[in-house]
Amino acid sequence: MLDQRVGQILGMNPTLTLEYGMIWQPFTYMFVHGGTGHILFNMLVLFVFGHYLERALGSIEFMLLYFGVGILAGLFSLWIYVAAGTINVFLVGASGAIYGAVFVFAVLNPRAMLYIFGLIPISARVLVLLYTAINLLNQLGGAQTGVAHMTHLAGFGFAALYCALRLRINPVKRLLHG
């Protein structure tokens, strides 16, 4: 984070959000990142998948997807943190929204071939299933990595809801059989 004070104001912390009335944090946490590598990776993924999604859905619909999923993933994370009594955490990064964009891309293009590090071919559907498994295993295994695995999973979950409600596509059926 470039400035710790900016991170405290714009990142999402349960105490600051709920007790001190910083109700903007479930939105602004997406614009603060934990370092240069964090923001560069998120923006690279957004560029690759967002470009396609904006063309496929239109600009307004893409913004609804991106910000809607990001805000809902943040609110879900806030609820999880409060329920678990984890109040000294700061959630930063656009990963919930980014995961949502990747999920919708995979639903629309389940057989699209992607190349990890430009070398390893993997279909979009397998990538989503793999990321889901990795995040679930890390969360359930109690990995203390500083990564918001539940926010990532919430991004997938709210993107699935978006697909069902807005696009009228069954995302599970499409990913498994599309």
Order of helices and strands: HHHHHHEEHHH
Determine Rg (CA atoms, Å).
16 Å
Counting DSSP H or I runs of 4 or more residues, the number of helices is 9
Major sheet description: 2 strands, antiparallel
Shape call: globular
How much of the sequence is in beta strands? under 5%
Mean pLDDT: 92
Low-confidence stretches: none
Question: Helix- and strand-based class?
Answer: mainly alpha
End-to-end gap: 40 Å
Q: How many strand segments?
A: 2
- Output the strand order for the largest sheet: 1-2
- Proportion in helices: 55-70%
Task: List the keywords.
67% helix, mainly alpha, single chain, two-stranded antiparallel sheet, 4% strand, 2 strands, 9 helices, 178 residues
Give an overview in words.
- The termini are far apart.
- About 35% of the residues are buried.
- Helix content is about 65%, strand content about 5%.
- With about 180 residues, it is mainly alpha-helical.
- It has a two-stranded antiparallel ribbon with strand order 1-2.
Note the topology.
Elements: H1 4-10, H2 14-18, H3 25-28, H4 36-57, H5 59-84, H6 95-108, E1 113-116, E2 120-123, H7 124-140, H8 149-165, H9 171-177
Short description:
The chain is mainly α and 178 residues long. It has helices at residues 4-10, 14-18, 25-28, 36-57, 59-84, 95-108, 124-140, 149-165, 171-177; strands spanning 113-116, 120-123.
